[in-house]
Structure prediction request, 68 residues.
Amino acid sequence: GHPCIEVEDNGPGIQPELLEEIFIPFFTTKDTGTGVGLSISKQIMQMHGGDIRVSSTPGEGARFVLEF
Prediction:
């Protein structure tokens, strides 16, 4: 019963062992990344009673669900 926004891509996906780490502050897999974007996004959602979830299939893409 909660409104959701789902964002899905068909990129390389996220390795299963990294799915929880991507929300840790300053964690990044990019050479020039800061690792703060997903961490801040998750914190903002949780501060307002929502959440962000992620699922992924490596080689097929990723899906993020923002639940309000």
Q: What stands out?
A: The chain is about 15% helix and 30% strand. The first strand starts at residue 4 and ends at 8. The first helix runs from residue 37 to 47.
